[in-house]
Specification:
By secondary structure, the chain is an all-alpha fold. The chain has a single domain, classed as Up-down Bundle (Heme Oxygenase, Chain A), CATH 1.20.910. It is built from 9 helices and no strands. The chain is globular and about 50 Å long.
């Protein structure tokens, strides 16, 4: 995921994670390492990423965010606390409003017409969004939240790491700044706190399922950037 309102961290866990979320990060540490080393993200940082790949990413992310917002609304309906439901519903709105504004500014600045901004979903995007919808519709609040969490958390960690490196491309730097700021970090902390509290009162079976879902979503986060790097298309 990807909410504004809402280097390389490998040897240590994020300092503000609780017991369960620290375990989650341990589970995905090898995935995160491969993610931060991906040529797509390296190209964002040094400014060498070909524009067609970043445009592909932005167009796919627009489609992703529509489903992510829907999934957050379903998850909110299962929240055990009304304040959590309100927070997640607010995130659902912000994920569309804030991020699509960023996308449209960059794409319009590159001369991409509005009619071209609704590209069809690529295979990895289609699979990832259906994974999220299945989790929030079919499973418990804790499991659904775990499936959604990598979208929040990995983007913050990537943003902080790329912020250290900076980017020579102003559009890429604008994207990096969106995820490296304190405002976005505060939102991620909110969701991590929800995850830790809900996991603490969940059964061992639910916690294990949540860990597995979190890992799957982290893999999809990697595949999302990899799809943009490859300009992924459907097979005939």
């Amino acid at each position: 995921m990807r909410l504004r309102a809402l280097g390389l961290v490998l040897a240590a866990l994020p300092l503000w994670g609780g017991e369960f979320t620290s375990q989650l990060w341990t589970d995905i540490r090898p995935i995160y390492q491969k993610t931060i080393e991906h040529p797509f993200l390296k190209g964002l940082a040094d400014g060498t990423l070909p524009r067609d790949r970043f445009q592909f990413y932005l167009l796919q992310d627009r489609r992703y965010l529509r489903v992510f917002g829907q999934a957050l609304s379903v998850l909110a309906s299962k929240a055990p606390r009304p304040e959590w439901a309100a927070t997640l519903n607010r995130h659902a709105i912000d994920s569309l409003k804030e991020e699509q504004t960023l996308h449209e500014k960059i794409l319009a600045g590159w001369g991409v017409p509005p009619a071209a901004m609704d590209a069809a979903m690529a295979p990895s995007n289609y699979a990832y969004t259906n994974h999220l919808l299945a989790a929030v519709h079919r499973l418990s609040f804790a499991e659904g939240l775990a499936a959604m969490l990598p979208c929040y958390w990995i983007y913050e960690e990537v943003g902080k790491e790329l912020k250290k490196r900076g980017s020579k491309d102003p559009a890429y730097q604008r994207w990096i700044d969106n995820y490296a700021g304190d405002e976005y970090g505060a939102v991620v902390k909110q969701v991590l706190a929800m995850m830790d509290e809900e996991a603490a009162r969940s059964s061992p079976a639910v916690r294990q399922s949540a860990r597995e879902l979190f890992v799957i979503s982290a893999r999809y986060e990697y595949l999302f950037w990899d799809a943009a790097w490859r300009l992924e298309k459907w097979a005939p």
